[in-house]
Amino acid sequence: MMRHVLALGLIFVVGWGWLAASQQLSGTWEIDFEIDPQEASFADALELDTTLKVNYSIGDWTFGSATVLDEEGWVDQDFSTTGILGAFTLTGAVDFNPDGTFGSLVATISVPFAGVLFGAQLTLEDSDTFLSFTASSSAGLVDIDVDLDFGDNDDICDFPWDDATISIDFPFCCGEVSSELRIGCEGFEHFKAGVTGLVVPNIPWLTMGAEVRYTLQTKGVVISPAFDFGADACVDFYISVDSSSPLSIGSIHLDGIAVSCDFGTVTFTGITYWAESSKPGKLSSTEYFEVYTLESTEDACCGPLSFEMSVFFLEAGLNLFDVSKFDANLELELSPQFEFNMGLEIDVEGAATVVWKLGFFVDW
Question: What is the rounded distance in angstroms from the CA atom of residue 41 to the CA atom of residue 262?
């Protein structure tokens, strides 16, 4: 009897040790404060954004949660899982709203078979369901992808036929060709084929691309030149090309210019952009047309320290040299698990405003 008890105890200890060794609890916590001293009350002056992510892993499975809060309270709650069951890889993600309402559900499954990766995704959102099947494979230098989609935005929980897409990518001569065939509920929708990276002789910084697109009653051709002056050049030009017809190249416009230089551990970057199209770098999604940035990364007393200072310029601004905003940011990695950051934003256009930013990131 005593031998049986000792044997069971040994099995329990060994099993529990194996189970504990195969488990892992990890996560991150990111919190950012933004303080606006111009506001009359503390509640209006403080903005808070924090995200807590917790992951529990056991064997081939990971279960996670993500909680988002701000100064108003609980903003969002997500749960996710990913794992392997035999030859199948499964994932799932559920989004809930803090007011007790359902957001969305996304579940996927994939499995390789005979050199082909098959997959399926189910989405439930806003009383609509969507189901898609995919298959992808490679045959030598040819890549083939097939998508089959069901579901539409009709607030009905069903799976009506939506469309099927077949994509094939392959090298041809000196370029890379990508093609796509789409068939919808009405039948043939379009076929398009494009090529990129065609080198122009004796002009190493210019390459050409082209795309031809067929529908039932139309055919379109678009020529798209690309400019690349190489990584060794400290000056980069943003160039756009007008075309009066699909096969002609019209006016060439210089939309902007960027300069980047390294001085030891300090990097200077200047970007000027005049066009109305999508702006590059730090000018993206801003009203400014020019920015100068100094940035540096060095070792401090407690770990890597990075510093960045930017000056933004507004066209026809009210201040000297059109200077409109100063933005400074500092980031210090105190340990591999803890990172502190601080920033100061001063908008001097019109009535000057100051915003102070604090935050930290914890990883365990």
Answer: 44
Q: Which residues contact 157 (CB under 8 A, 6 or more apart)?
A: 124, 127, 128, 129
Torsion sign (Cα): 38, 319, 277, 232: negative
CB 46 within 8 A of CB 34: yes
d(CA 154, CA 131) in angstroms, rounded, equals 14
Could you tell me the pTM of the whole model?
0.69
Confidence at residue 232, expressed as pLDDT on a 0 to 100 scale: 63
User: Residue 292: what pLDDT?
Assistant: 94
Burial of 312 (0-12, 13-18, 19+ CB in 10 A): buried
CA distance linking residue 62 with residue 25, whole number of Å:
10
Burial class (CB in 10 A: 0-12, 13-18, 19+), 324: buried
Q: Phi/psi class of residue 137: alpha, beta or left (left: φ > 0; alpha: ψ in -120 to 50)?
A: beta
For 211, half-sphere exposure in the C-beta direction (CA atoms, 13 angstrom radius) is: 11
CA distance 224 to 200: 13
Ranges of residues in the chain with a pLDDT under 50 are 1-2, 4-20
Count CA atoms within 13 Å of residue 84 on its CB side.
7
